[in-house]
Structures are given as structure tokens and as C-alpha cells.
Write a structure and sequence with these properties.
The chain is about 35% helix and about 25% strand. It contains ten helices and 14 strands. The N and C termini lie far apart (about 45 Å). The protein binds zinc ion (ZN). Zinc ion (ZN) binds next to loops.
């Protein structure tokens, strides 16, 4: 199942260390994007899609997912509302009332509408044109873009940037974090919900030695349609290195839907305990809040 690819050096899409692809072990996974080569960074331990990022394909792919289709995208606004509320609860403790807030990958605006109700001055960006149009139709400023760096937002002008369930599609974590830091004011906040299934891929790879099909399926399920799978600790380290101070972390707040299965609830309860007592994330999702450091 493993093969060695023979290209050149590529930067890790998470920590940016140079990786020699000639010696990089890759695995071929069947994903909703088709067969994809995936590799692992030996430094930050992230798994990532080794094929090139194509913005046009990313839009077309997103249009095939529930969050990229009008009807199901709008339905997700309600289904994900408990997660949005959990993030707003935490923001209330750390953010100035009425702050300017940018939501990256805002989809059909579920979080933006709730944040606006809380008194924040909101603005969104998304790569899917239909989602942008819908958010605009709700009276919220929204631009078609995948990055805070694409916009004409002045330096030090925003109080809050949120990125809920989108960082695992970014082509470069550090590049986007730098763009976010640029637009945030001193002491401004970054709130992120991410998915960390790197531990499940690790188990899948281990299982694959004895049960090839089961192990392969677990890897593919864990990867889903993402481009990167980052251990929570590695992501937090990169965020700190990019000039942020982590002020809050919670696997439990990342519980995704209004109605979660017992299996999902158990995974988050166990994940919360593991994070608290060992500092390792074992939950499928993870929420954190980081403040732009001033020095
Ligand atoms: Zn790395």
C-alpha cells in the first residue's frame, strides 16, 4: 500500500518544514475527491494530501458536499447551532461587545446570523458563490474568497476572526494564520473549530498491518474529504509560533450537531477527559480561542 513518490522538496502545509518527497512515504486513499496520495510530516506529525491544491476544483468539490448545496447548507445553520452557541458563549468572556467579526468559510451564514444577534458587526467569506449570495440576501456583507489575505481589510482592524470547520481545507496553515494576524487588532481573537482525526489515521495505519481492509477503511473515514489532518497539539504550537497566545481549548465545545449519536457523545466525553488529564486530543473535533500577541 505504501509507495515512494519521486518529486522534489515540498513544504509541509502545516509547519512548513521542507520535506524531501523522494524519501516521503505516501499512502493512496480512496476519498470523496477520488484516489488521493497522502503523506505524513515527520516534524509536526500531520497527515496531508500530497496532490496539488487547485482553487477551482475546491469550489466544484465543495458544491457536491452538504454544506455547499443550498438546501442542506441552510439546514446545517440550525443543526450546527449548539456548536455556534458554545463558541459565542466563550467569545462573550473574552471579546469586546460590538467587535468587528470576520467568519472565514461562513457557508450559509449560520454562525454569522447568531453573532449578529449578539451585537457583533459581522462579515463573511466563502468560496461557494451560492453561499455568498445567500448570506448577502440576509443583509450581511459577504465576499467570495477563501482567505482573509484576499480581501482589502486594513491591518489591525478586526476584533474577531472565526474559522469554523474550514482550516483542514486550507493549502497552508501558516500562510492563513499570518493573514488572520494581519487583519486582527492588538489583542484580537481567533476562534477555530477544527477536526483532529490524526489519532484515528494512526490507529488505521497500525491496524492495516494485520487487517488491511479494516485499517484502510479507518484511514479513509478519518481523512474524509479533508486536505490535512493535524494533531491538536501541533496546530496549537503553530498558532503560537505565528504570534498568538492560546486562551481557551475545548474538545467538548466542538460537538457538531443538535442531535448527536451516543457514539459521538461518548467520543467527545472521553476526548474531553483525555485532553484535560493527558494533553492529547482523542475527540474527533476541537475548539480553541487564541489572542493576537502584541509583542
Ligand atoms: Zn509539518
Amino acid at each position: 500500500m505504501f509507495m515512494n513518490s519521486l518529486v522534489n522538496h515540498v513544504p509541509c502545509p502545516v509547519c512548513e518544514i521542507g520535506l524531501n518527497t523522494g524519501t516521503l512515504a505516501t499512502m493512496l486513499l480512496s476519498t470523496p475527491r477520488g484516489n488521493q496520495p497522502w503523506a505524513r510530516c515527520h516534524s509536526c506529525r500531520s497527515f496531508f494530501a500530497a496532490n496539488e491544491y487547485d482553487p477551482g476544483q475546491e469550489v466544484e468539490h465543495t458544491r457536491t458536499r452538504p454544506w455547499g448545496i443550498v438546501e442542506s447548507g441552510i439546514a446545517l445553520n440550525d443543526e450546527k447551532s449548539p456548536m455556534f452557541e458554545a463558541i459565542l458563549r466563550t467569545l462573550r468572556r473574552y471579546a469586546q461587545p460590538g467587535s468587528m467579526l470576520l467568519d472565514i468559510g461562513c457557508s450559509y451564514g449560520g454562525f454569522l446570523m447568531r453573532a449578529q444577534d449578539e451585537g457583533y458587526q459581522v462579515r463573511g467569506i466563502d468560496i461557494v458563490p451560492e453561499a455568498v449570495e445567500y448570506v448577502r440576501s440576509r443583509g450581511i456583507r459577504c465576499d467570495r474568497s477563501g482567505s482573509a489575505g484576499d480581501l482589502d481589510i486594513p491591518e489591525n482592524s478586526l476584533g474577531i476572526v472565526t474559522a469554523l470547520d474550514c482550516n483542514y481545507y486550507w493549502p497552508s496553515q501558516r500562510k492563513e494564520l499570518r493573514a488572520i494576524r494581519y487583519v486582527l487588532s492588538a489583542g484580537g481573537l481567533l476562534a477555530m473549530r477544527t477536526v483532529d482525526t490524526s489519532w484515528a489515521i494512526q490507529i488505521g495505519l497500525w491496524l492495516r498491518r494485520w487487517f488491511p481492509n479494516t485499517g484502510q477503511r479507518l484511514c479513509e473515514k478519518a481523512v474524509y474529504d479533508h486536505r490535512v489532518s493535524i494533531p491538536a497539539r501541533s496546530l496549537l504550537r503553530v498558532v503560537e509560533q505565528e504570534g498568538f497566545e492560546i486562551v481557551y481549548t475545548s474538545p467538548r465545545d466542538a460537538m457538531p450537531f443538535r442531535y448527536n449519536s451516543l457514539k459521538v457523545k461518548t467520543a467527545y466525553a472521553v476526548g474531553q477527559l483525555a485532553w484535560r488529564f493527558t494533553g492529547y486530543n482523542l475527540a474527533p473535533g476541537f475548539v480553541f480561542l487564541a489572542r493576537k500577541a502584541t509583542s
